Amino acid sequence: MQGSLGSSTWRCAFLGALVALSSCVHSTPVTEGRNATSAPKHVILMVLDDIGWADVGYHGSDFLTPNIDKMVNDGVKLERMYTYPQCSPTRSSVLTGRYSFRTGMQHFTTLTPASTPGLPRKDGTKTVAEIFQAGGYATHMVGKWHVGYSKWSQTPLGSGFDSFFGYLQGEGDYYNHSLFSCLGAACIFKENRGVSSPVGEGAAGYDFWDNRQPVYDAFGQYSMDYYDQKVDEILKPYGSKDIAPEKPLFLYFAEQTLHIPIQAPPDGSYVERCRKVTGGSQELNRTILCAMAGRLDDSIGLLSDRLKRYGMWNDTLILGLTDNGGMTYWGEVFPSSASSNWPLRGGKTTVFEGGVRSVAFLAGGAVPPAARGTSSNDLLHAIDVLPTLAGFAGLPTHDLVDGQNFWPTLQHGVAWLRHELPINIGVNPLGGLPFRPGLIGGGGLNYSALISWPYKIVVGNPYITWATADERRRDGWWTLKDYRYVPPEEEFALPYRLYDLEKDETEQRNLAGEPQYQDVVKYLTERVRWYASKANGYKFEQLNLPKLAGNCRWHNWTWSPFIREEEEENDDDDDDDDDDDDDDEVSDQEQELVI
User: What's the pTM value of the predicted model, to 2 decimals?
Assistant: First the structure.
């Protein structure tokens, strides 16, 4: 299983430069899963939050993660699993198998509290939970959602899950389970400025749910303990010798750590074992982040132990991946953190390898024996999660899936023929506002990257700068030793960047200006244009602005769905009409990526 397919693949792609879906670029393995006569297997999809490439022991980290290391080393390392630079876009692709830029879920800001974007509903798209639910599985979710919540039908309970325990927003306090609505410069609702909330500073709203009910009893208690307890409640019946559940299990476990805020676990031993890990600042502290990683590692160890204790391990496939790279320390500004992606460049929010290379793996007793203890360098993406898990279970997907089924490659060594992968397609990515000439830099602000192995092109900005001044650029490197920042030598504002990932995995030599690579730049730019075209499925971001009706202040200080159930059907119809109108207003020329 190798990611490098050699120069012949590149020549094939180059000759077919303007062919939309050539066999050279998009060969899809045949769906193949378990034998129809075999017992159904359990499936656990585990999405980890903001784990840096160098935040796990098996990548040489100074963080101690023995449970993660063992699970991964006994399974399959997926060393070229790609995601988007941020959370919501990746999670939308994991759950639907579709590129986020084809569902309007590619927001670089991620989804804002009180906004209305969500997973597509009426175009035939199905979530991975809906696929497994239709296939006779019990479907449960624990942890972070962050792909839409304005109405209950957008939440996990309306997306194929039998139960949901966790939170709906992109982040939350680990103890108070709340998220601010107006805190300093980060103010979603100005009318909340100075107003006191019972659940946290900054007019915070509570966001910790057991199905449709807020879990107020958890206020002040560490969230990770609750997640582990809920997972045990879901798994334990399968170990019953009397009446075990009839349905096999599909569990979506979306862990909260290592996302900000950086808060130490209540057990002080986690911090003590990390005293030699230093870096960052007093507030954004790598020592505390190390302690959080230790608590995450124990959570994964508990999951493994319970699967074995309840007799489930041998019949379970676990697919784990991070939603993006680790958020690095680039200043005392939100949403900086203290992760390291060393030796990869950049981090979360950037399209460099440190921002989009995921810590990913397959584990569990259902991993084929011949594949255990191996590493794959095949070019994978979050869109492949749904078809791979469905293929393993022998379940059909849906017609709009962009991803491919990796299971036959893993099980039987079927050649993985993908060499091209759009990493991010960002057309004037400003919170859902459609492109208009002169809006920003004449419409030339782009945020796109694409791999055509072994080359990777970055078109426009490698990340979107914040309104606040960063203390340092986000496109450098953060070392492990002493957590030292190494700045890049190249300028930030460049129209193109080109890297040979086979020779330069750390993206230090920009080839875009060298004469012998001009044909490569031209071809890859055309491929980016192809993906950015409405004719080829591109869709602008769903409008990602907070609605007054969603103010947590009006919902008993909770971040609760705010469109009433009786309004949902009409609201869905209106949303569909609005989308069509927006498409009509934007010309074909404006739908193309402006370079």
Answer: 0.90
